[in-house]
């Protein structure tokens, strides 16, 4: 199993992040994170003013932006999120703060095999 990329607590990233691996954010991000097929974890103490698109998103820090996940979005007890959330499933733990709009939608269809004729 590959080790995820981590944006450390002392780092400030401004701009677009595109990843083909899991990402853990402990610092500050201003811009966007795209990790199609992978997970993005926002640790407690992290601050994001960013849009996030990923397979799964777990937030324990502060996020202002649009979050879109193919599988699920989880807000931990220390999460503070303002914006729009879109995912097939949500989990909001006691203590989490959320302001904005949440929309559930079906997971994207998985490509299936077709028989040749």
Please characterize this protein's 3D structure.
With 117 residues, the chain is mainly β. It has one domain. It is 0% helix and 63% strand. It contains no helices and nine strands. Strands 1, 2, 3, 4, 5, 6, 7, 8 and 9 form a nine-stranded parallel sheet that branches. The radius of gyration is 15 Å and the shape is globular. The N and C termini lie far apart (38 Å). The mean pLDDT is 92.
The general outline is: globular
Low-confidence stretches: none
User: Proportion of β residues?
Assistant: over 45%
SSE pattern: EEEEEEEEE
What is the radius of gyration? 15 Å
Instruction: Calculate the mean pLDDT score and round it.
Output: 92
Reported for the largest beta sheet, the result is:
9 strands, parallel
Helix content: under 10%
Structural class by helix and strand composition = mainly beta
Number of helices: 0
Compute the number of strand runs: 9
Domain count: the total is 1
Which terms summarize this structure?
117 residues; mainly beta; 9 strands
In summary, what is this structure?
The chain has 117 residues and is mainly beta. It has no helices and nine strands.
SSE blueprint and pairings:
Blueprint: E1 5-7, E2 12-18, E3 23-25, E4 28-42, E5 47-59, E6 62-75, E7 80-87, E8 90-92, E9 97-104
Parallel strand pairs: 1-3, 2-4, 3-4, 4-5, 5-6, 6-7, 6-8, 7-9
